Amino acid sequence: MTEKNANPVTPADTGEQTDGDELPVQSIPDYVLELVTRARQASHRLATLSTAAKNRALSAMADAIEEQSAELIAANGEDLEAFGNAPEKKAAADRLRLTSDRISEMAAGIREVAALPDPVGGMPAMWTRPNGMQVGRVRVPIGVIGIIYESRPNVTADSAALCVKSGNACVLRGGSEAIRSNSAIAAVLSAAAEKNDIPAGAISFVSKPERELVPVLLKQDRFIDLIIPRGGESLMRIVAEHSTIPVIKHDAGVCHVYVDGDADPAMAERIAFNAKVQRPSTCNAMETLLVHQGIARTWLAGFIEKAVAAKVEVRGCQKTCQLSSLAKPASESDYGKEFLDLTLAVKVVKNIDEAVDHIARHGSRHTESIVTGDYQKAMRFLREVDASAVLVNASTRLNDGYQFGLGAEIGISTSRIHARGPMGLEELTCSKFIVLGSGQIRE
């Protein structure tokens, strides 16, 4: 590639020798400190840039991604070759893979972020106190956001775009399996951004793949204001154990669709099939299908037949297996498992009470859906089910920043804090109080 790297790898990084004296190998703590210091310095200027300046940079970043698509696919091909093609890696390989269409989607996502309203500087309310002073809140960037993620290279583009538009510098740490893809994407984005007045270091990518780097990064609370992890259980555990920085979790997606006895059969089939098959490797794909016993007798066998024809392995409870010979017996561990591939757990339940209880026991508070024609049951499901998004008569795959009109998302927060569900621009800002006085003092 002709573009400069977001964080160029030097001989000091790799331990290689150059002509003349040998350079010392840069230690991981020194490397991380240099990276986060640049990001913090960049964040001060980035926070003050105008909306027009940020949008120009985002437009250039989108153009650059498309113009360099061949190079990005080539880098991704090296990652895929190193990753291997073992059957058990199929779902992970799909998350890792870049195609022309996916690169176009990345560019479209950046442009969509540019078209969204800028949250920075927004003032939702201002009020006057009895002493005449005016008090208000104004939205400001968080500062420096560290994003630690696995597999999907599109996260690099989405994260960089959202952080630039919201005025935040970002430190991106992708998984080692996508190191070439992410390095290439970050290099393209940062080069295009810097040519359009975004300060160097605003898009910082961790180019060292060593695992021991992550705990060091998680201790940089003087420089990083927020950590957003996106990955599996092991990543979440490492972040929880080591971070001295506030964390917003993007946890596992154990998502359910409950087909109620009053559901329209055709609608239920369309929604459940989409939720499982459309892209099974995503966190908002359905992992467990719950079916009311009343509709199961006439509906479930036909759905399973269609799912199996689409190469879904169905693991069902005893009643499910009685209704369909295509279903394999499920183990208790299949309920509450994030398969991330064409595997589906199915359970026949007596009523909505059993469905809600099952979700409470086995769900991950990510996305839950009910298919029903009964308004009261729909409202009860919305009220009682605890998740970042609860849907009525819609696929779980719709819990997504694009689909909700937020533009690209930085993740789906499963934490019970102010940012819950798809995290768009507004969730990447905080507020500060401003006071307009005319000489007031505290008596």
Biggest β-sheet: strands ordered side by side in the sheet: 10-9-11-8-7-12-13
CATH superfamily of the largest domain: Aldehyde Dehydrogenase, Chain A, domain 1
CATH class value of the largest domain: Alpha Beta
**Which CATH architecture of the largest domain?**
3-Layer(aba) Sandwich
Mean pLDDT: 92
Q: Kindly, what is the distance between the CA atoms of the first and last residues, rounded to a whole number of angstroms?
A: 65 Å
- Rounded to the nearest angstrom, the radius of gyration is 24 Å
Largest sheet: 7 strands, parallel
| Helix percent band | 40-55%
* Apparent shape: globular
Structural class: alpha/beta
Percentage beta strand = 15-25%
Compute the number of structural domains. Answer: 2
Question: Count of helical segments?
Answer: 15
Q: Count of DSSP E strands?
A: 16
* Low-pLDDT ranges: 1-20
